[in-house]
Amino acid sequence: MKVLLIAALTLWAQQAAAGLPDLQAIVRYETVSQGADGVEKTLRYSEKWVRQGGHVWRERLGAAVPHRHDDDGHQHLDFASAPRHVWQDRKGQLNVEFIHAAKRERIVVERREWSDAGFDGSWARASQLVDIAQLRGFAKKNDSADTIVYTKGGKTLRWSQRWQMPLRVSLQSADGRQRETITVEPQALPPSAPQPWKRSADWPARDYLDTLD
């Protein structure tokens, strides 16, 4: 019985990954915060996303290549801005790697180090930005044939049924001093589009722990 259950869960995971439409997208993040002194600060950055066949690639736009540190001479990877590749294998297990383009190597992150590298272990958030199943208590209304709007307090999410991705996420603190906005511009992925993770597939792999030396 246990073997059958594991097989069923594996099949479900593969079908769920295959069921997500392929896409390419630009995801823009903006955070505006106002301090007690009245000074307003804005943080913006954008990412390129590619989702195809159980693979998700996200890459910070405009990020500089890692620079050398004077203290040890090594090139240290900024995992927050480095290209990240998350995918499901045939058994439905998640795999995570970061790309160190300057050194032409893949940094493989084992499950026990996921949180240290900034990955929370959620395939839904890795592949769809938000876990729509976790929106408990949100009011829901159909805004169009494709778009569903979820609202709760200072949170609003516009969800695309076609792309299975949010089009816009807005968050505001209770006092109004902090606002966060994420906008997603999805497009169809041409069949001939190169898969970015294949460019580095043959690069040597390095364990995440080795990068902490």
TrEMBL record:
<keyword id="KW-0732">Signal</keyword>
<feature type="region of interest" description="Disordered">
    <location>
        <begin position="174"/>
        <end position="213"/>
    </location>
</feature>
<feature type="compositionally biased region" description="Basic and acidic residues">
    <location>
        <begin position="199"/>
        <end position="213"/>
    </location>
</feature>
<protein>
    <recommendedName>
        <fullName>DUF3108 domain-containing protein</fullName>
    </recommendedName>
</protein>
<feature type="signal peptide">
    <location>
        <begin position="1"/>
        <end position="18"/>
    </location>
</feature>
